[in-house]
Specification:
One of its GO terms (molecular function) is transcription cis-regulatory region binding. The chain has eleven helices and eleven strands. The strands form three sheets. Strands 3, 4, 5, 6, 9, 10 and 11 form a seven-stranded mixed sheet that branches. α2 crosses α3.
Amino acid sequence: MTLRHLKIFVTVCETGSTTAAGEKLHIAQPSISLAISELEDYYGIKLFDRIAKRLYITEAGKKFLQYATHIVGLFEEMEREIKNFDATGIIRIGASITIGNYLLPGYITRFKKIHPQMDVKVIIDNSEKIQQYILSNQIDIGLIEGIVYSPYIAEHKFRDDELVMVCGNAHPFANQKNVEISKLQNESFILRESGSAGREIFDSTMTSLGIKILPAWESTSTQAIIRAVQANLGISVLPYLLVKDSLNRKEISQFHIDGIRFQRSFSVIYHQNKFLTESAKDFIALCK
């Protein structure tokens, strides 16, 4: 078993077929198939089920992929670092929308003061996608809200956060302190998309209380939600960091549900098999 075998396996997983992997790696398709067979024989496992001329990764293959992805990634990182030891390095950061909007710019500014030659690449997406990018080695470090689901991801909580209920200034709930939860069922909700950490917390809380909410609107854009709330088209629940400016300008109003608070944590995450460079450790230390 060699690094070449691992790279072929990872590429087959990425492309979905031995033919596409061969084209990407400039290797003949029979050599790709042979490398996969050699891996399976070496470890005594089936990496793929072959059904109707298509490949379907097995559970053993999924576990193997987690290790192979990071072994290949670590080797490629070593190649870049050693061959260009004095050149500019790259750190790849992923952040949820809330963190990316309000905290990440400050973290990167401070990081660049410590490592002025480092190039920082950033992806902003919802927390679920950021976890997927960690698992597929598309980013080195992630900053997310809410719960980590994969056992392959290491996490360190670094800050607490709260979601708040908001409505238009003309809405009957505006500035109310003890709105009964049962009254929410009669309201139109404008919510973030499924997969966002805030939406997940809100949905799970409502479900645990026996309240079923069917959103009238769903959006990946916080600003679109705020504008719709401002126009009194519905109510919403959003991170305080994302609505505090609108609240301070009195564009929208906050209200409280009797006996309920939506609290969560921000976490810095990375793959448990990831080799953390000194610059990566420095970035993590800045997250507070």
